[in-house]
């Protein structure tokens, strides 16, 4: 590692003295797809005790509430459903992410559909510049308005965010605030198992770091995460962003989501993935999206929301080995705790 990279790495670590400060944004947004209910994901996750669980980790938690927005006036773009709403929501979300990072807090965004990733990653890149993204998803979300069969923007965010794919888009009214500044070389997929032919072509053409479920089965989730990090952040100098779609889990673990695909990650694998990324001390933003409490029965909803909270907890410091005992407590007799 050359001296410049060493300095960058030190700066990243020094910048994370307040790794224990967290800012939460709820994004009750469903216009990136067509299924009703995903906008209620933030409410369901909060009601299940999200803030309480994070505070129990000793974190300084500030809930910034749910964002509201005004749709932008957009005409003349084919095959992008509700683009005006997407543009209005994600532009405001980008600003909010920048505000929270400036407040020296890590950002937790709860959605909402995966189109919100346009705003969260844009804001992260604008604030930190040197960013690497782990996109945990059953789907690649690499379509453009010319290749998408549905026109749903939640299947397009990675293509919108990355600079190498900028030439594949027409001018998008309402999206002038968003310039693709993230290199596709700084993105790694984990959990893929439903990839369109066009997306497969793009992955191969640009040599995108992409680990499907067969790779997880072959190497194990532990090695897959480290291989991904070695590809997109070999010098351990980037601010990390995890955009976690709950449909990356197998539907048996998280049934309440709009586009489930059998054969996904186990909750145990997902938690381990987040534990590894937390321990880097560079994980500065987490998205948890696509929880839809309008799908399934009460047991299914509880299962899905509990899975979401376990994943979030792991990304913010919960350890299955148990939390460390505070200083001074180790000298106290064991009967004190009985």
UniProtKB/TrEMBL annotation:
Question: What EC number(s) does this enzyme carry?
Answer: 3.5.3.1
User: Per its UniProt entry, which superkingdom is the organism in?
Assistant: Eukaryota
Looking up Pfam families in the UniProt record yields: Arginase (PF00491)
State one molecular function term (GO): manganese ion binding
Record's protein name? Arginase
Cofactor descriptive note: Binds 2 manganese ions per subunit.
Q: Which residues form a coiled coil?
A: none
Its taxonomic path starts at:
Eukaryota, Metazoa, Ecdysozoa, Arthropoda, Hexapoda
Kindly list the GO CC terms recorded for this protein. Answer: cytosol; nucleus
The catalytic activity, as recorded, is: L-arginine + H2O = urea + L-ornithine
One of the GO BP terms on file: urea cycle
């Amino acid at each position: 590692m050359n001296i410049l990279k060493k300095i960058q790495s030190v700066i990243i670590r020094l910048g994370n003295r307040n790794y224990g400060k967290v800012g939460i944004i709820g994004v009750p947004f469903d216009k990136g797809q067509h299924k009703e209910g995903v906008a209620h994901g933030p409410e369901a996750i909060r009601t299940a005790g999200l803030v309480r669980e994070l505070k129990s980790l000793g974190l300084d938690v500030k809930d910034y509430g749910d964002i509201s927005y005004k749709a932008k006036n957009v005409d003349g773009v084919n095959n992008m459903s509700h683009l005006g709403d997407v543009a209005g929501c994600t532009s405001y979300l980008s600003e909010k992410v920048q505000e929270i990072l400036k407040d020296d807090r890590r950002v937790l965004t709860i959605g909402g559909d995966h189109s919100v990733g346009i705003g969260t990653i844009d804001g992260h890149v604008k604030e930190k510049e040197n960013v690497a993204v782990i996109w945990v998803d059953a789907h690649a979300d690499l379509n453009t308005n010319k290749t998408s069969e549905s026109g749903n923007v939640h299947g397009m965010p990675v293509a919108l965010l990355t600079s190498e794919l900028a030439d594949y888009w027409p001018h998008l009214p309402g999206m002038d605030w968003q310039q693709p500044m993230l290199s596709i070389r700084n993105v790694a997929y984990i959990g893929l198992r439903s990839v369109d032919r066009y997306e497969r072509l793009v992955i191969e053409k640009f040599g995108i770091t992409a680990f499907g479920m067969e790779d997880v089965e072959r190497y194990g989730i532990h090695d897959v995460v480290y291989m991904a990090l070695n590809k997109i952040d070999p010098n351990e100098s980037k601010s990390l962003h995890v955009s976690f779609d709950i449909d990356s889990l197998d539907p048996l673990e998280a049934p309440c989501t709009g586009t489930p695909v059998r054969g996904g990650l186990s909750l145990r694998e997902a938690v381990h993935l987040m534990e590894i990324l937390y321990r880097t001390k560079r994980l500065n933003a987490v998205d948890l999206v696509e929880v839809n409490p309008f799908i399934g029965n009460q047991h299914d909803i509880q299962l899905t929301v509990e899975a979401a909270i376990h994943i979030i907890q792991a990304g913010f410091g919960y350890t299955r080995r148990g939390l460390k005992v505070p200083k001074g407590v180790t000298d106290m007799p064991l009967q004190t705790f009985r």
